[in-house]
Amino acid sequence: MTDFSTPALQAENLVRFYDEGPARIEVLNDVSLTVARGEMVAIVGASGSGKSTLLHILGLLDVPNSGSVRVDGQLATGLGEAKKSALRNRSLGFVYQFHHLLPEFSALDNVAMPLIVRRENRDRARLAAREVLGMVGLAAREGHFPGQLSGGERQRVALARALVTRPACVLADEPTGNLDRHTAHQMFELLTQLNRESGTAFAIVTHDPELAARAGRQLLMENGRLVSGG
Ligand SMILES: Nc1ncnc2c1ncn2[C@@H]1O[C@H](COP(=O)(O)OP(=O)(O)OP(=O)(O)O)[C@@H](O)[C@H]1O
Ligand SMILES: [Mg+2]
Q1: What is the pLDDT of residue 211?
Q2: How far is the CA of 124 from the centre of ligand 1 (A)?
Q3: Does ligand 1 have an atom closer than 6 angstroms to the CB of 226?
Q4: For residue 45, which atom of ligand 1 is closest to its CA?
Q5: How many H helices and E strands in the chain?
Q6: E strands within the chain?
Q7: pLDDT band, very low/low/confident/very high, at 17 (cuts 50, 70, 90)
Q8: How far apart are the C-alpha atoms of 77 and 70, rounded to whole Å?
Q9: N or C terminus of the chain with fewer C-beta within 10 Å?
Q10: Which of 20, 24, 25, 43 has most ligand 1 atoms within 8 Å of its beta carbon, as the pocket-test mutant?
């Protein structure tokens, strides 16, 4: 049962530091934020301000030194690896600057992969993959391998792969970072369209202020702190 008042993501008082000898490098300093169901937020800030670290912690790929993360209402902090990866697979999708597609699999099978990992029936996984490939405008390219696709097309395949499980939230780290300006804007347009149509929340790290301005809300990171928008 889905409770529509449950936030897609909720982080409280996140602290992340690295000890290097006697020196402590503070990367996140008491960061709290909520991403509502279906919301689209942009995370901006200078290089080194802690954006990727925050995204990794929200995505349960890294663990904070203190503080808590809830994904789709479920407390993730303190869960064992198996439960954490089940929660990640069920409720989160990821898009990176470089798409990380598997070169020896077709676009369709790349998109179906998160469902196959989940041990869903292969035919049903392919059917669901076909549907989201259609949503990103690549129905005609399903049999192509990553090497046969353009940069923008690969990035759209990666976006379809992030959406195929119908996650509560997609986390994207510079998803348009290696695309030319025109393609980056098209990709962002697609992100906002999918956000509206699918009801999936998006948290997107971007360096491009024009793109960030198109999100519903902007979170600004400065030296490991969220200085506005949280
Ligand atoms: N494993 C680590 N050990 C020590 N310091 C680290 C480690 N990982 C990250 N940092 C430091 O944490 C800070 C924040 O890094 P992070 O990757 O989150 O920045 P960012 O805002 O994503 O930057 P960019 O815009 O360049 O991607 C940086 O100063 C970085 O050097
Ligand atoms: Mg980064």
Answers
A1: 86
A2: 39
A3: no
A4: 21
A5: 7, 10
A6: 9-20, 23-35, 40-45, 66-71, 74-75, 92-95, 169-173, 201-205, 217-222, 225-228
A7: very high
A8: 7
A9: N
A10: 25
As a residue count, the chain comes to 230
Q: Which is the closest atom of ligand 1 to the Cα of 20?
A: 4
- HSE-up (13 A, CA, CB side) for residue 20: 4
Three-state DSSP state, 24: strand
Burial of 168: CB neighbours in 10 Å, binned 0-12, 13-18, 19+: buried
179 confidence band (pLDDT: 50, 70, 90): confident
β-bridge mates for residue 139, sequence order: none
In the block, which residue shows the tokens 């998109």?
Answer: 111
Count CB atoms within 10 A of the CB of residue 127: 12
Q: Mind listing the pLDDT tens digit for each residue in 77-99?
A: 999 999 999 999 999 999 988 88
**Amino acid letter, 61:** L
The set of long-range contacts for 151-155, using a CB threshold of 8 Å and a minimum separation of 24, is 151/178, 151/179, 151/180, 151/183, 152/179, 152/183, 152/186, 152/187, 154/99, 154/101, 155/95, 155/99, 155/179, 155/183, 155/187
Which atom of ligand 1 lies nearest, measured to the CA of 205? 22
Q: Does the model's pTM come out above 0.70?
A: yes
- pLDDT of res. 4: 66
How far is C-alpha 84 from the geometric centre of its chain's CA atoms? 16
